[in-house]
TrEMBL record:
The lineage of its organism: Bacteria, Bacillati, Actinomycetota, Actinomycetes, Streptosporangiales. Pfam families: CN_hydrolase (PF00795), LNT_N (PF20154). One of its GO terms (molecular function) is N-acyltransferase activity. This is Apolipoprotein N-acyltransferase. It is a multi-pass membrane protein. It is found in: Cell membrane. Signal peptide: none annotated. Keywords: Acyltransferase, Cell membrane, Lipoprotein, Membrane, Transferase, Transmembrane, Transmembrane helix. InterPro entries: Apolipo_AcylTrfase, C-N_Hydrolase, C-N_Hydrolase_sf, LNT_N. Belongs to the CN hydrolase family. Apolipoprotein N-acyltransferase subfamily. GO terms for biological process: lipoprotein biosynthetic process. Pathway: Protein modification; lipoprotein biosynthesis (N-acyl transfer).
Amino acid sequence: MVQERTDPSAAAEGGQEPAAASVSGPGGEGRRLTAARVAAGAAGGLLLYTAFPPLDWWLCAPAGIALIAASLYGSRPRRAAWIGYLAAAVFLFPTLAWVRPIGDDAWLMLVALESFFYAAMAAAAALVFRLRLWPLWFACLWVAMEWLRSAVPFGGFPWARVAFSQGESLFTSYAALGGAPLVSFAVTLCGALLARAALQRPSRAPLRAVPAALAVAVPLLALAVPRPGDEGRTVNVGIVQGNVPGRGMHVMGDEPAVVLRNHADETKRLAQAVREGRLPKPDIVVLPENSTDIDPYRDPSANAIISDSVRDVGVPTLVGAVVSIGDTQRATRSLVWDPATGPGAYYDKQHLVPFGEYTPMKDIVLALSERANLVGRQSVAGDRPGDLKMGPVTVGAVNCYEVAYDGTVRGTVRAGGTPLVVQTNNATYALSNLPPQQLAMSKLRAVEHNRAVVTSATTGISAYVTPDGKVAWRTRELVADMTVVQVPVRTRETVATRVGAAPEWALMVMGAAAVGAAAWRGRRRGDRMGTD
């Protein structure tokens, strides 16, 4: 039997379920249309990748999403799911290529797992395409998908959220209103509106102007988002990047304390530059995560090396250390080191890297993988935000991987942290696309919370980001470097800081309600057809 060809957009205009063209029997779809869907989905995934650092072609994000939405429109949930999976894989393989130093198998498994979230979203989107305002509901579902993959499994993996491609774009200001979720929503809505305009039937071409105009309006409206201004207070922050000897999985090298000595020596060079008048005197100094590869609490020589360099620079210094907790555990710690009294207040990393700092399903994984034993001692998570008093300010300590987590950064700002200080160790992923992606997150967080962000990395990229999201200073990778930057101290909160996750939850509820409404409408329509 050959079904009648039906224009999907025509069905949607009447509030009915879009029906796909078919020459292959009931429930089928023409091969050329399926091939077009596959091509559009793959092209959309590739375009979305180019929006992320290091390419930073941010306009490609809404364009890529437009192609993905068009590839799914009018498809049934099962077909939408595998097309969504394909588009996600094309997007994630290059975007997450920084995982390859750990192993190509880890890279493949991560992409395979994360793509399932996009497949589930695509299946749900196939339902909401039946509704008149489907670009809105599609954007809500995208936010829900990013929330879910940021939460599960093993604490989630928030990397490659659409918002993190918009570190410096027309959409960035939405971060000050609703955080990263609202930025993702705005970009996805823009893309879906572009798809809606392109899918308009030729006989109703003039109506394309409406969704097209709305797509242009979405980024332009971000210019109206209120942003707190300067408060006239500054602090001088010294930033140290000491570099490390190794690469890949063996970044710390074979010689004990070499990483510690590199960072202590660079701190001394900073102190010398201050004495010679080449740099202004800092009020505080920040060293990166893992700036000491030996526990300074247990090793007297490590303690002495750090104390000597901190006394030389003469101001409180934030040291990144991996410290022992009992005989079998450890903590990744941001430790305030005073030039007179030594180690004091500290913050322990809350969001740990699965399979990097701890091993989920430990007994099974360690038995199956020899490489998993490289984790060594299992890390334990901290349970409090990173507000640390240092000299004239209370910094907001955020540790590496944590900058991707909305709640962790927001909690630190709410606790009084300003400026934000991101200590990171990207040495395993040097010269990959991870360091620039992480810097883009810092740019978004600066705008989201009206806070300057200072990043200190072992091998790069160390940087200073203004509260407007602009990079005012940065290092190259794989070099030792240091500087002193004058950083504004801001205490006023943005709307995003105050309302927290409320916009994200509102958008997710709207998306879930749209799926329910579309399913109910489809069921009623099916019941009517059965009665007839």
